[in-house]
């Protein structure tokens, strides 16, 4: 701290405290005047100085406004010098400030290198600004507000050759009788917003941006060959012809805003589009007379047509020609009913309050954002996008169908979509939404009946409340572990490949969805005894699929699923010798008609017992059963099985009941044993009473050597690719289709003997059978007169 005599800069002498602009807050008795520091000194004229470096002081002062700089300058000589640096006074702001002409001139003379002048709300700004333009020759930006600017002001503009930007708002221009001409050689940006003027003529050869927004004028004539941006929004008094002439005089236009210009017609837009081919932004919102008929904007990127009553479904044809379009707004277009668009570059679209809008089909690989709200009639939505991450369709009261192909979708909210009915294919197997993490279907109160989630490998938590839903498909939701499903009318649930689905989620679903009749849990590897125990709640269950699971104990299924008609246990590798015992020992599942044991660990004894004792089975799949060595089914085995059952059964069969069984026989119609690698013999005699067996598949059983079948109803037999087959005996009076493709060991004499017992055989395939000759058709017809076609490569 140093003490010195009072100091006042030479250039500031004579300036009074009134030099500081007065905004009404400066007090005459205690205010600090710019350039006059004596008012803050005591009678001893002592200077108070802080030891701060000039660079640090300059940095601090760069954050201060002009009034604060004036106050800081009255502190000491160092601060005074720092506060008067021209860098801080490049922009002179007199916003809502009352200042005299003398002080204003003094400031302009003191800082002649100022490049920006702002006079928003400054009284007498029309007179002040003329003095400023004569003093500030380097002025580049001029901002004026709430004033009256006559022709003299616009004539004085030429005194500022460096001026590039002029903004006048909420002001009166001209005398209301004559035209006002704006002329400047170097002006690039001109804004005359909310101004009152009769007629305006703008001649600025370098002008690039022009805004006449909300100005009240009857005519505008433009001579601006370099103009890129034109804003005529809310110029209600401009006629259609005036707007057309003004826009067409600027062939380089890239952006035009004519929103709320009610007089604009399609003819004007067509002429503008043909004259200005580079337009990339077009706003015609609140123009009731336009429909875009025959309008073509080849380079358009941003289109806004809010509240345009003339926009209808046919208008989408014109929009589709704008292949560069990235943003589209169609809010409040009350007559629009349907939209089908395939836009390769569309990124954002807004569809709000479309009262008659019922159908949307939108395809864009780069679509990032879509806003759909208050479309009360919307029924059908189909969206395809590779980058869309969030979709909110809340309160779409009439939505009945939704189809999404969105590879990056993470969140989907369908809350309060009360009319979701018929089919809701959110995702399908062709791609769907593989990254989906959150799906909300709360309060779908009325009619959501079908939901297909397709392939959603990242969906881990699912919450659905839809009282009318009947079909729910979750197949492919690989990490889904927690499911909260409350659908009282649900009849079919497919949770295939939900490998993390817990027993708790299954039990919770069974408690809240008592009407389930079809339950598919294929590849649900976390489902165990506790989850299966909850099936006693599903009294209507008729189909249960436990394929590719790790289940070992099926007793909960046998004890509780009395109406079960279809049971699939394909590829259940952990079934033990006792897993299926209840089927043939205790007559469990009396309604079972279809059983799939393909590729499972079931042993031969269980297979033969099931064949003999489960007489209600109509369809049995034993494909790929490696533990089956011989398929022998005759009366002797049936009687042996009956005895074994009687030993364990609390109520053994009586003699007359055995006779009834032997007379009634089995209901089996289809037997599939495709690809059983170890089977060597297949024998089904007439004593097995297979009265309904019509189709047998033994193909791809490479070790099968002997086939002996006596089935009165058999119509189709496939033993193709059985390379070891040597013995074939058939007593099948109704057989009409026999496939022996690639049976390389089968001799011709063996086949002749076999088909001689098949009087209705019509089709026989012996392709790639080297020991069988097919050329002599006469011989084959002599053996089997009904034969109509022989398929062979010879």
From TrEMBL:
Top-level taxon: Eukaryota
Protein name as catalogued: F-box domain-containing protein
Family matches, as Pfam families: DUF7885 (PF25372), F-box-like (PF12937)
Every F-box domain range: 52-92
SMART domains given in the database record: FBOX (SM00256), LRR_CC (SM00367)
Biased composition (Polar residues): 1-20
Region (Disordered): 1-38
């Amino acid at each position: 701290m140093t003490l010195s005599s009072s100091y006042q800069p030479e250039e500031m002498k004579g300036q009074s405290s009134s030099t500081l602009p007065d905004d009404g807050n400066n007090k005459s008795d205690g205010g600090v005047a710019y350039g006059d520091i004596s008012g803050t000194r005591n009678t001893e004229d002592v200077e108070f100085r802080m030891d701060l470096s000039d660079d640090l002081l300059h940095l601090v002062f760069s954050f201060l406004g002009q009034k604060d700089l004036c106050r800081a300058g009255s502190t000491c000589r160092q601060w005074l010098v720092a506060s008067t640096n021209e860098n801080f006074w490049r922009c002179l702001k007199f916003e809502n400030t009352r200042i005299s002409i003398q002080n204003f001139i003094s400031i302009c003379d003191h800082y002649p290198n100022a490049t920006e002048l702002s006079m928003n709300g400054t009284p007498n700004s029309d007179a002040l600004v003329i003095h400023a333009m004569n003093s500030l020759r380097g002025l580049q930006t001029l901002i004026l507000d709430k004033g009256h600017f006559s022709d003299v002001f616009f004539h004085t503009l030429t005194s500022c050759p460096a001026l590039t930007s002029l903004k006048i708002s909420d002001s009166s221009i001209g005398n209301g009788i004559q035209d006002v001409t704006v002329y400047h050689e170097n002006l690039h940006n001109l804004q005359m917003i909310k101004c009152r003027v009769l007629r305006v003529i703008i001649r600025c050869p370098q002008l690039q941006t022009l805004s006449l927004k909300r100005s009240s004028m009857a005519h505008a004539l433009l001579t601006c060959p370099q103009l890129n941006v034109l804003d005529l929004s809310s110029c209600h008094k401009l006629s259609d012809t005036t707007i057309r002439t003004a826009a067409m005089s600027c062939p380089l236009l890239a952006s035009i805003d004519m929103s709320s210009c009610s007089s604009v017609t399609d003819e004007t837009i067509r002429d503008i589009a043909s004259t200005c081919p580079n337009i990339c932004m077009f706003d015609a919102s609140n123009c009731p007379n336009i429909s875009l008929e025959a309008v073509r904007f080849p380079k358009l990127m941003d289109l806004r047509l809010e509240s345009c009553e003339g926009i209808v479904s046919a208008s989408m044809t014109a929009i589709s020609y704008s292949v560069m379009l990235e943003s589209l707004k169609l809010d409040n277009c009350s007559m629009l009913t349907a939209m089908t668009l395939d836009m390769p570059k569309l990124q954002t679209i807004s569809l709000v309050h479309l009262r008659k809008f019922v159908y949307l089909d939108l395809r864009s690989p780069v679509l990032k954002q879509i806003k759909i709200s208050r479309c009360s009639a919307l029924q059908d939505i189909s969206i395809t996008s590779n980058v869309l991450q969030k979709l909110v369709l809340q309160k779409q009261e009439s939505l009945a169908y939704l189809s999404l192909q969105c590879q990056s979708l993470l969140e989907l909210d369908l809350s309060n979509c009360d009319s979701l009915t018929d089919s809701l294919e959110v995702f399908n197997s062709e791609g769907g939404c593989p990254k989906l993490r959150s799906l909300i279907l709360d309060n779908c109160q009325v009619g959501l009946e079908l939901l297909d989630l397709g392939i959603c490998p990242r969906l881990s938590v699912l919450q659905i409340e839809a009282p009318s839903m009947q079909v729910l498909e979750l197949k492919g939701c690989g990490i889904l572990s927690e499911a909260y499903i409350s659908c009282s009318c649900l009849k079919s649930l497919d949770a295939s490949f939900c490998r993390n689905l817990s027993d708790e989620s299954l039990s919770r679903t069974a408690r809240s969805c008592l009407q389930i009749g079809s339950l598919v849990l294929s590849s649900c590897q976390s489902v165990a005894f506790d989850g299966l125990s909850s099936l006693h709640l599903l009294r209507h269950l008729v189909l249960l699929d436990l394929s590719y699971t790790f289940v070992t104990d099926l007793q909960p299924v046998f004890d509780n699923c009395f109406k079960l008609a279809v049971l699939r246990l394909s590829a259940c590798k952990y079934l033990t010798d006792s897993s299926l015992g209840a089927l043939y020992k205790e007559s469990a599942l009396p309604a079972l008609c279809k059983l799939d044991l393909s590729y499972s660990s079931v042993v031969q004894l269980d297979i033969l017992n099931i064949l003999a004792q489960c007489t209600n089975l109509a369809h049995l799949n034993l494909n790929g059963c490696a533990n089956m060595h011989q398929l022998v089914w005759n009366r002797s085995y049936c009687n042996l099985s009956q005895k074994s059952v009687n030993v364990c059964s609390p109520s053994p069969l009586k003699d007359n009941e055995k006779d009834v069984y032997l007379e009634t026989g089995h209901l089996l119609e289809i037997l599939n044993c495709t690809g059983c690698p170890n089977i060597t013999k297949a024998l089904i005699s007439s004593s097995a009473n297979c009265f309904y067996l019509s189709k047998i598949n033994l193909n791809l059983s490479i070790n099968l050597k002997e086939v002996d079948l006596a089935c009165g109803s058999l119509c189709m037999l496939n033993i193709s690719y059985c390379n070891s087959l040597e013995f074939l005996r058939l007593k099948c009076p109704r057989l009409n289709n026999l496939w022996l493709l690639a049976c390389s060991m089968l001799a011709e004499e063996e086949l002749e003997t076999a088909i001689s017992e098949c009087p209705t055989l019509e089709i026989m395939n012996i392709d790639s059978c080297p020991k069988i000759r097919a050329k002599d058709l006469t011989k084959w017809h002599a053996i089997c007169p009904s034969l109509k076609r022989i398929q062979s490569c010879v």
